[in-house]
Automatic annotation (TrEMBL):
Domain Response regulatory: 2-122
UniProt name for this protein: Response regulator
The UniProt record lists the keyword DNA-binding: yes
Source species: Nocardioides aestuarii
Coiled-coil blocks: none
Lineage: Bacteria, Bacillati, Actinomycetota, Actinomycetes, Propionibacteriales
């Protein structure tokens, strides 16, 4: 699998490049800012662009803006944002603007090599990956008037894992439940959130958006 890496911190960038090579990824190029990242993708589109959220010149949302430009020009390229801190509104923007092939992880996740590699492959496959710490933070912020108030504890667990991008099979393995039980919980979540089937059936995305907005 082919990737490009963009981060203005030289040591982290080199370390990440070595980590990716050690777990079987081909690093096509490295960049120190968003503009260079976009240029590298244009030269030879990778499967995934791994971007630091904050890069020069302003150290604001340059990585996110680069991700938006990349997806507008090369829709098949997955984008994975890495951040030093949990910032829910940026993850929400990713979820809102793109239907899949995106991820938001804390930089600490890179050290868990096997898990990080799996997350990258999921993004490349068109899935959405959200950092578990962000999900936990949003759960902790729940209010009584929360739109998720009607969900049972089990359904909240399922939705939390859904927000991390897990499939029904993966959720079943994580919660030690049958796939049929997970499917029943997912169906119940859709019903309680008023998400009726539509032609594109993006109810999973809409359910997770509801979850993320509820934590704001």
């Amino acid at each position: 699998m082919r990737v490009i890496v963009a981060d203005d911190a030289l040591l982290f960038r080199e370390g990440l490049t070595r980590v990716l090579a050690s777990i079987g990824f081909e690093v096509l190029g490295v960049a120190g800012d968003g503009e260079e990242a976009v240029r590298l993708v244009g030269q030879d589109p990778p499967d995934v662009a791994v971007l630091d959220l904050r890069m020069p010149p302003g150290h604001g949302t340059e990585g996110l803006e680069a991700a938006v430009r990349i997806r507008e020009r090369w829709p098949s390229v997955g984008v994975l944002l890495l951040s030093q801190y949990v910032e829910a509104h940026y993850a929400l923007r990713l979820m809102t603007e793109f239907e899949g092939g995106v991820g938001y992880l804390l930089k600490d996740r890179v050290s868990a090599l096997e898990s990080f590699g799996q997350d990258l492959r999921r993004v490349a496959a068109g899935e959405t990956v959200i950092d578990p710490e962000l999900v936990s933070l949003l759960v902790a912020r729940r209010r009584e008037e929360d739109p998720l108030g009607a969900l049972s504890e089990r359904e909240r667990d399922v939705l939390s894992l859904m927000a991390q991008g897990l499939s029904n099979v993966a959720m079943a393995e994580t919660l030690f439940l049958s796939t049929k039980t997970i499917e029943a919980n997912v169906s119940s979540i859709f019903t309680k959130l008023g998400l009726a089937p539509d032609a594109r059936d993006h109810r999973r995305v809409l359910a997770v958006l509801t979850f993320l907005r509820g934590g704001g």
